[in-house]
Amino acid sequence: MKVSRLGYLSFTSVDLPGWRRFGTGVIGAMDVPGTEGDVRLKIDEHPFRIRVEAGDADRLSGIGWELASRADHDALYERLNGLGLKLRDGDAAGAAKRCVADYFATEDPAGNIIEFYCERTGCGDPFRSPAGVRGFVTGEMGLGHVVVPAAGALEETHDFYRSVLGFGASDDLTIALPIEGVPPMRVLFMHADNPRHHSLALFSKPSPTGIVHLMLELEDVDEVGRCLDRVGAHGLGLMATLGRHCNDNMLSFYVNGPAGVAVEIGCEGLQLDWTRFEPTVSSVADHWGHAYRQLADGP
């Protein structure tokens, strides 16, 4: 029993129109009808991959992890329940909102809200980008990846994902910042049961929005370049310039999205055979580029 892939991300926001403009005009996602005025962004055959509902704060409100089968879903529920974790059972209304057959939720040791589901519903409708994007790299590898804070509970949270949820270690990155008085940043990268180098990473510092960044992968460098053009046309700032990461080979940039939520847009990420992989320990993040504009807050 292992988590298969990152399925969806849920947010609350005080600026739903801003998310809609960013999602369609910059990312190139489809704006699909939702419930209660929420914003749903579709990037493939799934009904949506990002959902934003109105709230009194801008924050990541849930990370949806997909299990391969109902049996895996039920087995994980029993395992977590047996460990004494506080579980929140999903109801029919919540399942319909998420477009899943069934789900439940809990928190990891760092307080990040995580949801587990099986059988995504409403799949199959084609993706047609309003910005002309040909497609995103999803499929068996899921939405992309997400980096969340685990300040004060980094090792405990890392152990939870590995020993309890079955994630595998990909890379342990420590970056010494060229800023006096600012301690090094540490990022622990993990993979789910699919070839993507990492679907999740834990960051050693806090984040007011509950997320450090999310990554969406495009098909090639020209698509990434066109997205970078759209960022400029919308007058948005970059958190990091174009560059290539060492650990997953991703060629990407980071744009400051709504409410300061950073979105990495990239291509050419590694796809790996985990039976032939040894986790790495790194101290250099990039082959080139990725000049971060907010070094004290991190990538």
From TrEMBL:
Pfam families: BphC_D1, Glyoxalase. Coiled coil: none annotated. It comes from the Bacteria. InterPro entries: Glyas_Bleomycin-R_OHBP_Dase (IPR029068), Glyas_Fos-R_dOase_dom (IPR004360), VOC_core (IPR037523). Residues 5-119, 142-268 form the VOC domain. Signal peptide: none annotated. This is Glyoxalase/bleomycin resistance protein/dioxygenase.
